[in-house]
UniProtKB/TrEMBL annotation:
Keyword Signal among record annotations: yes
CDD domains noted in UniProt: MltD-like (cd16894)
GO BP terms in the entry: peptidoglycan metabolic process
Record-given protein name: Membrane-bound lytic murein transglycosylase D
Domain Transglycosylase SLT: 121-224
Protein family (similarity comment): Belongs to the transglycosylase Slt family.
Domain LysM: 354-388
Highest taxon, organism lineage: Bacteria
Swiss-Prot/TrEMBL keywords: Signal
InterPro entries in the cross-refs: LysM, Lysozyme-like_dom_sf, Transglyc_AS, Transglycosylase_SLT_dom_1
Any GO CC annotation of this UniProt entry: membrane
Organism: Rugamonas rubra
GO-annotated molecular function: peptidoglycan lytic transglycosylase activity
Signal peptide residues on this chain, from the entry's feature table: 1-25
Amino acid sequence: MQASSNTSAALAALLIALAPVAGHAADAATGGAPLSAPARSASNNADVIARAERAAKPALSEEALRETDVWGRIRTGYAIPDLDNSLVAKHITWYSSRPDHIARTTARASRYLFHVVNELEKRGMPTELALLPFIESAFNPQALSSANAAGMWQFVPGTGRDFNLKQNVFKDERRGIVTSTDAALTYLQRLYDMFGDWQLALAAYNWGEGSVQRAIKRNQALGKPTDFDSLADLMPAETRNYVPKLQAVKNIIANPGQYGLSLPLIDNQPYFTAVDKTSDIDLTIAAQLAELSVDEFKALNPQFNRPVITGGEKTKILLPQENAEKFHLNLAQWGRALSTWTTHKITGARERIETLASKFHTTPEVIRQANNIPQRSMLVAGSTILVPKISSSLNVDIAPEVADNATVNYVADRGGKRAGNYKAAKGGKASDDDAPVKLVKARVPRHAAGRKGHRNDD
């Protein structure tokens, strides 16, 4: 009884403390327009109670700790109100009739879900948000849309920079498992604080917060409700289907047998751990030391764009728990150079790949592949490319400032016509700021999956 009394008192105090915050969230959700007194009271009370319950919940609930499978842990933390409409039914049918797609997606997810769920629980967020990459990328961290949204959580370049996701020739943290998850959850938290409603927060993650705010104001002006269902007709098709898709996946995960599906067992324990590296290391050597295939290594470290991992001690690599110790043991016995690459800056007006290959005792194809340079292209002044190390650079790491600011610019090898400009922000993909010649520069929303375009996610 005493414990219950103390909990009630603490909750009451928390309710009082959170009341002003909840009022602010309600204002944000209505675009700043005043609510009627009864509506504001109901909105405030519901939001305050929800916040208090989340805050009173331990980072890892007893139920979550008891779970032996991550899927069960996700089910335990479901907290977003359910949708039940024809779109949900449509997407349940789509997913449940594609067991191969579900099998591929859940197999990929098995590497990442424990980490995502852990981070959600630390923040007191609904655990079904861990299923959002089902919709965004099919849990493929290499997914790239035609609008250049990248990674498991599909950040466009501008939003990635807003959340401190580094994008340069050598790495794109929009693809990084830890970095992109942290950014995505921070963004979703911000959107929830803005709208006070998880369904609207999800719509804003897909469509953009400004678009959702304008839709809310439009319905308010017409005296209409501003919940997700009431705003759906104002949304583009992708956003209108976005939350129903998540609901469909949520229903399937809740009871896969009901839909004739099975899920792989995902142990309720970390799949990977972060390992320090002390110097530049070739991606293939890192995989070899960890006794992993290159594909498995890339699945945990998809942010690295080049065959060498730079960044000194501040850069960590992710390895399965059982392979981290192998990495350290093999590294201690390696006794050879860890990196076979260095950088070379083009100082002349133009330089042919064949000339560079001869200078660095390699083939043109090796240089093209290492730097994502198309055939029949010449490098122009200011470009910084990877080249094989020669004797004078064997023990020299690539300086962080070089890696952070490197660009690769090229022109057509014949006729001098520009073929494109490969900026650091894309690590070898033509940037939205420097589209290839003859292509009109496209405007990309800050984070608008509704206009992301096709994703190469499966």
